[in-house]
Amino acid sequence: MAAAPDVADLVARAREGQPRAVARLISMVEDAAPAMREATAALAPYSGRAQVVGLTGPPGVGKSTTTSALVAVYRARGLRVGVLAVDPSSPFSGGALLGDRVRMQDHATDADVYIRSMASRGHLGGLSWATPQAIRVLDAAGFDVVLVETVGVGQSEVEVAGAADTTVVLLAPGMGDGVQAAKAGILEIGDVFVVNKADRDGADTTVRELRHMITLGSGPRSGPADDPWSPAVLKTVASTREGIDAVVDAIDAHRAWLERAGQLGARRQVRAQAEIEAIAFDALRARIGHLHGDARLDALAARVVVGDLDPYAAADLLVAGLGA
Ligand SMILES: Nc1nc2c(ncn2[C@@H]2O[C@H](COP(=O)(O)OP(=O)(O)O)[C@@H](O)[C@H]2O)c(=O)[nH]1
Ligand SMILES: [Mg+2]
């Protein structure tokens, strides 16, 4: 077993930009290590500075290629970039993540870029709990931009939208036209839309359909009525980095709007609420889990068996007793 980490030292070294300290802290997040609580407290004063950008979309659309291209643009603009590639669908790092590593190789020797594949390892609370914590580590470590790549599978794109200041939704011609996107609920979460693989046929059709769908509906993320955000729809060829500068400009424009329209604080408030809730649920689940074999649970069960108490009332008594 590894020795209990010296958390203060670890946080200090992460803040100096030492990649091994950053890696250790993120591993603690993934493993839900007991020392994470202390680490989170030590990191808290340094968080809230990074620009957090989520990238989501169907598998194979070019998220990793785009992420790598975005890193190049941010580096050219003198910014330090942290990348989290979160794959909730595979608890064991599989081929997809290996592929990501190859695509990210361009930046492997750059000390101002930190790239990490993260699995949620199926612990309770899963992605919702681990991702914001890992973002906090990178934020406190002084990365100016944190890019979070998530495979668009069901719940995960909604979660990445919750964790990010700006969410970039990627589609490709033929695989995710406007109608499909609307069905998948992806229109509501996108602040910037990118039609990647614009070197293929049908890109203009997809762009047109997306623009149409966006003008039809304005979701809760569009902000105040007198200063709404209308999402940009851009075309890229990530593999040649074509159009990627414009994506960074659109992300920056969105960030400026978030600040101007008072939305940044609002989003972060929602994010913090979700984080607190996830941690609290985890704690509650753990406490209820520990009640198996507990005398209180035994006593309540005995009363339910004989019909002296119904299970709802018993559960109420159990929950009320948790505070004690
Ligand atoms: N033709 C074309 N292929 C691309 C483009 N961007 C990415 N690809 C390729 O699409 C495949 C999937 O890309 P990847 O970034 O791993 O997608 P992800 O699953 O969304 O992360 C890879 O073979 C990429 O080389 C593009 O703009 N045009
Ligand atoms: Mg990928």
Describe the structure.
The chain has 324 residues and is α/β, with parallel strands linked by helices. Helices cover 51% and strands 12% of the residues. It has helices spanning 7-15, 19-30, 36-43, 63-76, 95-103, 126-140, 155-163, 178-183, 203-216, 244-260, 263-290, 295-305, 311-322, and strands at 51-57, 81-86, 113-118, 145-151, 166-171, 192-195, 232-235. A seven-stranded parallel beta sheet has the order 3-2-4-1-5-6-7, with helices on both faces. Helix 5 (95-103) links the parallel strand 2 and strand 3 (113-118). The radius of gyration is 22 Å and the shape is globular. The two termini are 34 Å apart. Residues 63-64, 96, 100, 149 line the site of magnesium ion.
Features:
seven-stranded parallel beta sheet; 7 strands; 324 residues; 13 helices; binds guanosine-5'-diphosphate; alpha/beta; binds magnesium ion
